[in-house]
Amino acid sequence: MKDVYITKIAKFLPNEPVDNDQMEERLGLLNGRPSRAKSIVLRSNQIKTRYYAIDKNGEITHNNAQLTEQAVRNLCNDQFTLNDIQLLSCGTSSPDQLLPSHAAMVHGLLKNGNLEINSASGVCCSGMNALKFGYLAVKSQQVDNAVCTGSERSSSRMGTNIFEEEIATLKQLEANPILAFEKDFLRWMLSDGAGAVLLENQPKGAVSLKIEWMEGYSYAFEMETCMYAGGEKLADGSLKPWSDYPADQWGKQSLFAVKQDVKLLDEFILQKAVDSLKQAYAKHGISPKEIDYYLPHISSNYFKQGFYDEMKNEGVEMPWDKWFLNLEKVGNIGAASIYVMLEELVDSGRLKKGDRILLFVPESARFSYTYAYLTVH
């Protein structure tokens, strides 16, 4: 088995930052009126700016594959070119189409010769799952290097056009139709962007991050669905997929919009997070004392204090001075968030040899959690 190092990190955030006052200009008004949920959600998540693959005129500037392509290109230079990549592993929750896979579409844009590709599906954990595939491939000497990515183009699922038909249908039933909170909620949470890392079997450059281990935990065996798209949640907690609905209902019920069971999220996301964290600590014999930088992907600052308190109550308190977050500046980019966060930490110049970093990514879809423990070389 080979050691595996993150030797380069890059990101691509499309267009200029969009502040809270500009959001509805980009995403569009529903039923011609401002959202009631917007101010509530923004006050809770405390996001100040985010990025959309939409210009000031409302025109789409990039699809997901193009965002990912740009992040990979930003990773490469004269010392490591596109043609040097041996494995491309891509994670996203918002691929541009059902088929072909996201990684295949990115590879098609890169046009960098024959190589192995892997696509990881899911929500936020898909970026970490893509990383783990590359990590295991390099570690087991299947390849000498791998490029892994996380990306999202969530704006394509939040625009007015996604909900127009449902709003029109609701107008037939009531005078002042309002989109259900579980759909409107996520319009003010999500952002677009992509991140990429280069994995190699030896350290290079000024800062290399050795991946000591990665772990993943799923609670789907005991938890019903919380975040979903492409279906509708029924009264018994099960999901009815879009393919079981007549085509004329896809738009009327906004079946392809991203939705979230907010009550379920609030009740269980932190509880299961700390349970999985304690399992990872126990398995690898570490505690918060063996961590210098803690990078948690949190979807909203609403959860920040609660997460801290839950860890403290369970005896695994993480001191605030170890936390590193950038949610306020870049928003919640789903599968790309942890890549963009790590890129900013490395670029900050703070890291020194021997520092230890814990990456933590939760996924509320059906409550999954992934971890990576890194050391600076």
Strand-helix topology:
Elements: E1 5-12, E2 18-19, H1 23-27, H2 37-45, E3 49-50, H3 64-75, E4 87-92, H4 102-110, E5 116-120, H5 125-139, E6 145-153, H6 160-171, H7 181-184, E7 192-200, E8 209-218, E9 227-228, E10 231-233, E11 239-241, H8 248-252, E12 259-260, H9 262-284, E13 293-296, H10 304-313, H11 327-330, H12 337-347, E14 356-363, E15 368-376
Parallel strand pairs: 4-5, 4-6, 13-14
Antiparallel strand pairs: 1-7, 1-8, 2-3, 6-7, 8-15, 9-12, 10-11, 14-15
Helix pairs in contact: 3-4, 9-10
SSE series: EEHHEHEHEHEHHEEEEEHEHEHHHEE
Could you give the order of strands across the largest sheet?
A: 5-4-6-7-1-8-15-14-13
Helix content: 25-40%
Tell me the CATH architecture of the largest domain. 3-Layer(aba) Sandwich
At the third CATH level, what is the topology name of the largest domain? Peroxisomal Thiolase, Chain A, domain 1
CATH H level, superfamily name of the largest domain: Thiolase/Chalcone synthase
Q: Tally of extended strands?
A: 15
Q: Tell me, briefly, the overall form.
A: globular
Task: Determine the strand fraction and express it as a percent band.
Answer: 15-25%
Total number of domains? 2
Number of helices: 12
Oligomer classification: single chain
Backbone CA Rg: 20 Å
The end-to-end distance, rounded to whole angstroms, is 19 Å
